[in-house]
Specification:
heterodimer, A: two-stranded antiparallel ribbon, globular, B: alpha+beta, 2 domains, six-stranded antiparallel β-sheet
Chain lengths: 56, 268
């Protein structure tokens, strides 16, 4: 059994302004982002890459 | 002396606490019931009023030549018949001083209530300590501030995106709406009235099937769902950070979740 290392730095940058395509794309793939794993997952929306983690 | 005058006098005495409580509850964090019971409100104002009056009486007695004549005040409240004439005469003599005292007291009460609310919010006391929590529970859920409650992992400041799934029953069929959180609306009792989503999609929820083909992109950027249709709501708080392709590790590369609008026939 190994311990999953969580990123130490917080993603404090708020999505103050973002192209609508990114938000819409995130909605489309949200169901594929695991709620069980606390490990960040990489998503590609268009030609941009994001590291996503569910909180809580 | 009639009961009406005594009632007005008591209301004026309790007004500082009433004003402070209203200022404290003036934000969207508090439920404001327009049909609330005034007697109940005034009862809750007794202790704040006593505290504010005590504070002001101490300042008045120690910094000016004026003082509160409790004997005359008692006569007015109790409506002592043979002394009311003298009490009213004294009120007339000091009407400007009494007016200015009350004006400063009421203004300070409003500012005190407002500043206490701001202090509670600034130091996140409402998130850390249950006693300070405001009455609108939906605020903490929809904004994600509930992540800062004790024993909940992660922090509110980490949230960049909020995805909401709303399960509704329409014409006997279960429909799952998904979208970004945009806003929410509550009624005067604090019950949820509607949920406002951005970039909504939907699918029929039958046998819990999940596949991209089941989703339908609603050709609108915003969607309001009334609470009467809602069965339950699922909240997902996400921390999303843009990265370069070069930063992706080999293990992450194997599990990339991809969405390309050009290859999506439903994408609008």
């Amino acid at each position: 059994m190994s311990k999953i290392e969580q990123p130490k730095e917080k993603a404090s940058i708020k999505a103050s302004y973002r192209a609508p395509e990114i938000g819409s794309g995130l909605v489309r793939i949200a169901h594929k982002i695991s709620s069980i794993s606390s490990e960040p997952q990489v998503v590609r929306i268009g030609d941009r890459y994001f590291r996503v983690r569910e909180l809580g | 002396m009639n009961i009406a005058f005594t009632t007005i006098l008591l209301f004026i005495i309790l007004a500082p606490g009433f004003t402070a409580r209203n200022a404290y509850n003036s934000s969207k964090l508090s439920i404001i019931d327009r049909n609330r019971n005034l007697v109940n409100d005034l009862t809750w104002s007794i202790i704040p009023s006593l505290a504010l009056h005590t504070f002001f009486i101490v300042i008045l007695h120690n910094t000016t030549n004026y003082y509160i004549d409790f004997e005359q005040l008692g006569n007015l409240i109790l409506g002592v018949a043979n002394k009311s004439e003298a009490s009213f005469r004294q009120l007339g003599d000091y009407k400007y001083a009494i007016f200015i005292y009350n004006l400063i007291l009421f203004t300070t009460s409003f500012l005190a209530g407002f500043l206490i609310k701001e202090t509670v919010r600034k130091f996140n006391l409402d998130r850390k300590i249950r006693y300070f929590r405001f009455s609108n529970k939906w605020h903490y859920i929809f904004t994600g501030e509930c992540l800062d409650f004790p024993d909940v992992p992660d922090h509110y400041e980490e949230i960049t995106d909020k995805i909401i799934n709303v399960l509704c029953k329409v014409n006997g069929r279960n429909i799952l709406y998904t979208g970004e959180y945009f806003n929410y609306y509550i009624d005067s009792k604090g019950d949820l009235e509607a949920v406002h989503l951005r970039n909504p999609i939907r699918r029929y929820l039958e046998n819990d099937e999940v596949s991209d083909e089941k989703y339908y992109v609603i050709s609108s950027r915003y969607l309001v769902i009334p609470n009467s249709d809602i069965i339950n709501i699922n909240f997902r708080y996400l921390a999303m950070e843009e990265i370069d392709e070069a930063d992706i590790t080999p293990s992450e590369r194997q599990n990339i979740i991809e969405f390309d609008s050009d290859q999506d026939p439903l994408y609008i």
